[in-house]
Design a protein that fits this description.
Elements: H1 19-32, H2 41-45, H3 51-62, H4 73-86, H5 90-95, H6 102-116, H7 131-137, H8 141-148, H9 158-161, H10 164-168, H11 191-195
Helix pairs in contact: 4-7
The structure holds a DNA duplex (21 and 21 nucleotides).
Subcellular location: Nucleus
Pfam families: Myb_DNA-binding (PF00249)
Domain HTH myb-type: 9-66, 72-117
DNA sequence: AATGCTCCCAACCGCAACTAT
DNA sequence: CATAGTTGCGGTTGGGAGCAT
């Protein structure tokens, strides 16, 4: 099956969003609630944008619960740990961090944590990045069990959920409802504590 | 003060998966 | 069941801001 073009690129605006466009999109979503059809949204909202672009803008920037920057050590730890377990499944990782988006997490990893992790490079995809970040990723059996088993029920261990054999298989659309909340990681030692 | 370099973030692109008909 | 349309995802890039020389 061929890929349907998402929009006529020649006739829609691209590039940075203006405050007016943001407001149009924001007010449309506010007044209509959940967007059922992003392709049709630009027309209805009076935006000369690709529906895909509108969706991205809303999800990554305009959503009211979005947090920008100010990553905590705990969030670092979650990202590193999950990256180690499941790789670059940014949407899954972001789902564990309330207020964070996959794009945001991805950017944060690429610009900050990858360096922390010891300069993971494309040339040598690291099974387990080194240094500070690595300490989040491969918790000792004792700390790991105390950390993940404190989670109630189904979403206990990412290591188990996303073992290499699982990684090999496509995850498809991951059901975030089965994912453990961030609070699961609150039981994990802080990097400061781990380092001391 | 001017120029060049590096870093960071927002946005785009293309593909795969999912859903409706 | 097959096809078309839509959504979601991950990789990549362009441009601005800040820093160093």
């Amino acid at each position: 099956m061929g890929r349907a073009p998402c929009c006529d690129k020649a006739s829609v605006k691209r590039g940075p969003w203006s405050p007016e466009e943001d407001e149009l999109l924001r007010s449309y979503v506010r007044s209509h609630g959940a967007v059922g059809n992003w392709i049709a949204l630009p027309q209805k909202a009076g935006l000369n944008r690709c529906g895909k672009s509108c969706r991205l803008r809303w999800l990554n920037y305009l959503r009211p619960d979005i947090k920008h920057g100010g990553y905590t050590e705990q969030e670092d730890m979650v990202i590193c740990s999950l990256y180690n377990s499941i790789g670059s499944r940014w949407s899954i990782i972001a789902s564990k961090l309330p207020g964070r988006t996959d794009n945001d997490v991805k950017n944060y990893w690429n610009t900050k944590l990858k360096k922390k992790a010891g300069g993971a490079t494309i040339a040598t995809p690291p099974p387990a990045p080194q240094s500070q970040c690595a300490s989040y990723m491969q918790p000792s059996p004792a700390s790991a069990s105390s950390a993940v088993t404190t989670a109630s029920g189904d979403a206990g261990s990412f290591g188990a959920m996303y073992s290499p054999s699982h990684q090999a298989a496509p995850l498809g659309h991951y059901n975030v409802n089965t994912a453990a909340p961030l609070a699961e990681f609150s039981a994990m030692p802080t990097p400061a504590a781990a380092n001391s």
